[in-house]
Each structure stands twice: as structure tokens, then as C-alpha cells.
Known about the structure:
By secondary structure, this protein is mostly helical. The chain has helices at residues 2-25, 35-44, 48-60, 66-75, 79-91, 98-103, 110-124, 136-179. α2 runs parallel beside α4 (66-75), α3 (48-60) runs parallel beside α5 and α4 runs antiparallel to α5. The longest helix has 44 residues, at 136-179. The chain is flat and about 60 Å long.
Amino acid sequence: MLNLQHSKLWWLTLVVLGAAILAIYWQPWDDEYTNQELLEAALHGGDASQRVEAASTLASRKHAARPLLRELLKESSDPAVVAVAIQGLAEIWDYQSMPEMIAALDHEDLFVRGRAIGAVQRIIGVELEYLANDAPAERRSKTSYIAKVWQQRRQNRQVIERLEGLAQTDAATSVANNER
Length: 180
């Protein structure tokens, strides 16, 4: 009797685990729809779960979906979809979306704010003192500080990019001079 119960429990565990893996990795939208169709479904789809599923599939397409994820972040009124767009853009290190991500730190939805601080910290590369469930006034103060930190990082990044560009130009000139 004991072996039969363990056997049933083992099979039940195996079935539940298999269903969980299938739910995580199988995305019915994957090859059937274009990125634009997924954007439309994420913005205007039937119910919330369909919109989130379309947004998740769009985000899984990474760099190919970057401009549409940006649009989704700006246009969606569904907090769960906004959170998916933020996460997708953070995963591909989309620096251009930082103003919207920083603005999302003041979003009315706690989950969106949580995703936004995770994304901002990932891109800035610094752990910031911000709690998504702080009082609105405290969040605004911290958001203002975070925006300043981002501006400093962005300026430093632009300087580095210019220096790297000059170094590449110098290297190319040097190679061209050596070939003469």
C-alpha cells in the first residue's frame, strides 16, 4: 500500500512538474505572429492574460522587438503589460528607455514600480536606495535623485563612447599609414 501511494505521488509530481515546464517554455504566439501583431495584441488584446502573454512573447524576441517594446512601455495602460515591457527592455540593456523607466518609478502600480527599480539598477549598475512601497513623497524624492545619477552615468558613457570612437579612428589611421 505504501509503495502504491508513493508511486501515485511520484506520478502526480511528475505531471505537475511537466505542466509547469510546458507553461514556462511553450509560448503559443512564438512563430505564428509578427512583432507588430504581438504589439497590437499586447495593447488591445482580449483579456489581461492574453495581453501579458503577447507582451511576454514580444519581449522574448529581444533586440528584434526593441522599438515595439519601447512603444508598448509608452502606450499601454495595463500595469502587467508595462511591467513586462520594462523587464524586456532591461534584459537588452535599452539605455534609450531609461527616462520612461525612471518615470515608472512613480507609477501608480506597485508591481510596475518594482520592475522599474530593478531595470534602472541593472542599467545604471548601482544598487539604489528606493523601495517601491515607500510613501509617494519619499518615492518622488528618491526618483529625482535617481534621475540625477542616471544623467551623470549617461554623460560619462557618452564621453567614453567619444573616446572609443577617437581611438578607433586613430587605430584606423595608423593602420592606413603603415600600409603605405
